[in-house]
Write a structure and sequence with these properties.
CATH superfamily: Cytidine Deaminase, domain 2
Helix content: 25-40%
Oligomer: single chain
Structural class: alpha+beta
Largest sheet: 5 strands, mixed
CATH topology: Cytidine Deaminase, domain 2
CATH architecture: 3-Layer(aba) Sandwich
Strand order of the largest sheet: 2-1-3-4-5
CATH class: Alpha Beta
Order of helices and strands: HEEHEHEEH
Number of strands: 5
């Protein structure tokens, strides 16, 4: 583990919040409820759940909704994103990985995989990711 990772108790608490948030999922097409919680560096939390659309390409993932909520409230200082799905593998999709990368390679992503808690920085999940520094 790196120094960026969350204490296990906090990570588990965030995943549980994400699970509860998934209960509000609007997923009538896939029936795949996803919940996410963003933790800012000052300790605030922003939930999000996937929201599907009949035009499937307009579906928005839980992680991006949670991040949008944080940004809408004026927070760009993201510490972690916790994700929960009803399966044994809950790693963020590629689009969400790129979206999380926007807030820094050290953002911690917490998820369940094979019934155990996993913590990785977004830089570890998306090596050689496209960053805002590349735009300068």
């Amino acid at each position: 583990m790196t120094g960026n990772y969350l204490p296990d108790e906090l990570a588990a608490e965030l995943v549980e919040e994400a699970r509860k948030t998934a209960e509000n999922s609007y997923s009538p097409y896939s029936h795949f409820a996803v919940g996410a919680v963003v933790l800012t560096k000052d300790g605030q939390r922003f939930p999000g759940t996937n929201t599907e659309n009949a035009s499937y390409g307009l579906t928005i993932c839980a992680e991006r909704i949670a991040l949008g909520g944080a940004v809408s409230a004026g927070h760009m200082d993201i510490r972690a994103v916790a994700v929960w799905t009803p399966t044994e593998s809950a790693s963020p999709c590629g689009a969400c990985r790129q979206f999380i990368m926007e807030f820094g390679q050290d953002v911690v992503v917490v998820f369940q995989n094979e019934k155990k808690m996993i913590q990785k920085t977004i830089g570890e999940l998306l090596p050689y990711g496209f960053t805002r520094e590349a735009m300068q």
